[in-house]
Specification:
Elements lengths: L1 H18 L10 E5 L4 E5 L4 H12 L7 E5 L4 H5 L10 H18 L5 E6 L2 H8 L5 E4 L15 H7 L1 H9 L12 H7 L1 H9 L3 E6 L1 H11 L16 E8 L2 E8 L1 H4 L2
Parallel strand pairs: 3-6, 4-5, 4-6
Antiparallel strand pairs: 1-2, 3-7, 7-8
The chain binds glyceraldehyde-3-phosphate (G3H).
Length: 261
């Protein structure tokens, strides 16, 4: 009963008021969100991180929506075990694109009630084509930059650059490919994507790559950043996240069976 629920809620507020102490303006820096962010008050704040926090807190909301994370369909580099590059989709990857479109249409209807984001690389942009909806390509969603190892297989890296291979095996999180990136770098460049994901009130489908999706997944499921390089993000699977006040529900929807039909 909505009236009973509202009444119960008002009682809860009364209960909180018994112990709630309002921070004073002379007590130092603070950020206060009033009425679930309808108003944000900032007092005596300065510096980079506090100002980043202000925009982060301004973008939080309580609307229900889904975040779908998926890797692009299988590419010709996936088949040959090569990393990086800007390869085309393989035939199985094209089939995944169609399965993904069928899944999204079935879940959302044909209305544009969902935002579709890709990286700037061909394999994610082409995975989005069958959706027949506008999509937004983000450079920040591009795969980890493998620098001088771009386009190589892991065996080739092992043979040609054994020291680099060993260094990455020792500390996969901090290791930066020569003239490329580390997982730590990827997390930093995802900052604006995360802020924008928090801000969106509609559902968002993110079609990207293994390393960046590991980082986004770790953020929403509150896993330590250092776990990122080892998180399973299988191909041809949609990870459905439903953020709520104190966490995030998760479901994994493999679309692979459709590919064999
Ligand atoms: O380099 C491309 C991969 O998607 C990232 O995988 O960090 O486990 O090597 P990896």
């Amino acid at each position: 009963d909505p009236e009973a629920a509202a009444d119960d809620f008002r009682h809860r507020i009364k209960h909180y008021e018994k112990t709630y102490e309002q921070v004073g303006d002379d007590e130092g820096g603070y950020i206060r969100r009033v009425d679930a962010g309808a108003r944000v008050e900032v007092n005596q704040l300065q510096g980079y991180l506090p100002s980043r926090l202000v925009s982060f807190l301004m973008n939080l909301h309580l609307s229900e929506r889904l975040i779908w994370l998926t890797r692009h369909g299988e590419s010709i580099y996936n088949i040959s075990g090569r990393i990086g590059g800007d390869p085309d989709l393989a035939p199985r990857g094209e089939r995944f694109a169609r399965s993904l479109a069928a899944f999204v249409h079935q879940r959302t209807g044909h209305a544009n009630g969902i935002a579709v984001w890709t990286s700037s690389l061909k394999r994610t942009v082409r995975t989005a084509v069958a959706l027949e909806r506008p999509s937004l390509p983000w450079r920040a969603l591009d795969e980890i930059d493998a620098g001088v190892c771009d386009g190589m297989t892991y065996d080739e890296i092992h043979t040609a650059m054994p020291d680099e291979y060993a260094a990455r095996a020792r500390d996969k999180f901090r290791y930066r490919y020569p003239r490329g990136e580390s997982y730590q770098d990827v997390i930093q460049r995802l900052d604006p994507v995360i802020l924008e994901l928090e801000r969106q009130q509609c559902s968002v489908l993110v079609i990207a790559h293994q390393a960046v999706l590991r980082a986004l997944y770790a953020y929403f499921t509150e896993l330590p950043a250092e776990d990122c390089p080892f998180l399973p993000v299988p191909m041809h699977t949609v990870i459905e996240l439903r953020p709520h006040a104190y966490g995030c529900d998760e479901r994994r929807i493999p679309l692979a069976p459709l590919l064999e039909q």
